[in-house]
């Protein structure tokens, strides 16, 4: 089980990303558009820098839904490898079977 403070910090980051998503996307589009003048693009980058750091989507960490573990995360299931194996063995994940050959 991950520390509760780490889980809560990540949840706050997710909320900030959603809050600033439209503004971040608009500024990113301007900054990446090579048809615009360099000064406009620079101004857009400076405005992006003024946004809160945690508003950047890359700062959000994928964590297991049950334990909060940040490593060994499977996006398809939203679980870490340990929980995926436990729930799979118990038959709680439809369509998942233990491999054997």
Number of strands: 2
Major pleated sheet: 2 strands, antiparallel
CATH architecture heading of the largest domain: Orthogonal Bundle
Order of helices and strands: HHEEH
Radius of gyration: 19 Å
**Strand share of the residues?**
under 5%
Helicity level, as a percent range?
40-55%
Protein model, in words:
With 101 residues, the chain is mainly alpha-helical. It has two domains: 1-61, Orthogonal Bundle (Helix Hairpins); 63-95, 30s Ribosomal Protein S14, Chain N (Irregular). 51% of the residues lie in helices and 4% in strands. The protein is built from three helices and two strands. The protein has helices at 4-32, 38-50, 81-90; strands spanning 73-74, 79-80. A two-stranded antiparallel sheet has the order 1-2. A hairpin with a 4-residue loop joins strand 1 (73-74) and strand 2 (79-80). Helix 1 (4-32) packs antiparallel against helix 2. The longest helix has 29 residues, at 4-32. The protein is elongated, with a radius of gyration of 19 Å. The chain starts with a helix and ends in an 11-residue tail after the last helix.
């Amino acid at each position: 089980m991950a520390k509760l403070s780490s889980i809560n910090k990540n949840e706050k980051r997710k909320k900030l990303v959603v809050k600033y998503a439209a503004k971040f996307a608009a500024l990113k589009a301007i900054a990446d558009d090579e048809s615009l003048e360099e000064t406009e693009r620079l101004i857009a980058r400076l405005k992006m820098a003024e946004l809160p750091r945690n508003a950047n989507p890359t700062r959000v960490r994928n964590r297991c839904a049950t334990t909060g573990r940040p490593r060994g995360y499977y996006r398809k299931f939203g679980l870490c490898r340990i929980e995926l194996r436990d729930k799979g063995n118990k038959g709680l994940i439809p369509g998942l079977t233990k491999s054997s050959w």
